[in-house]
């Protein structure tokens, strides 16, 4: 073996395991220093989806637990009081998180053919944060509500 060959470290099993571990953390969103959405980021996203419409209270109900023991699967139900007729229906329901890496959690696009303006899903929360729901109506109006969810373990961050 030449002197040059001895100076170049080999990529060994430990290096491979370290790289695989960092890759897994990066995919899972657990890399330290990853930015979390701020209330300002959420406000900008809301302004974008509502096209600047004044947010109103009422008509929308957000069902989330107060404490999420497993933040990777937080059951969430959003219900909007709407007749769901061709003239008066919910066009979209948006969920935003003020602590996740991306402020938009999920968007549900609805049509008047749906009998009830309701959506249930499981969301992932990075940390304790406020979840904001926004319903955009067919006439362009928008309704909002929010809830603080305490994350105890798990999560994506």
Structural overview:
The protein has one domain (35-151): SoxY domain (Immunoglobulin-like). The radius of gyration is 22 Å and the shape is elongated. It has helices spanning 3-7, 13-28, 39-50, and strands spanning 55-56, 60-63, 67-68, 74-80, 90-97, 104-109, 118-123, 129-137, 142-151. Strands 1, 3, 5, 6, 8 and 9 form a 6-stranded mixed β-sheet that branches. Strands 2-4-7 form a 3-stranded antiparallel β-sheet, with no helix packed on it. The protein starts with a helix and ends in a 6-residue tail after the last strand. It is built from 3 helices and 9 strands, in the order αααβββββββββ. It is of the alpha+beta class and 157 residues long. A hairpin with a 4-residue loop joins β8 and β9 (142-151). Residues 24-31 have low confidence and may be disordered.
Brief summary of the model shown:
This protein has 157 residues and is of the alpha+beta class. It has helices at residues 3-7, 13-28, 39-50; strands at 55-56, 60-63, 67-68, 74-80, 90-97, 104-109, 118-123, 129-137, 142-151.
Write the layout of secondary structure elements.
Layout: H1 3-7, H2 13-28, H3 39-50, E1 55-56, E2 60-63, E3 67-68, E4 74-80, E5 90-97, E6 104-109, E7 118-123, E8 129-137, E9 142-151
Parallel strand pairs: 1-9, 3-9
Antiparallel strand pairs: 2-4, 4-7, 5-6, 5-8, 8-9
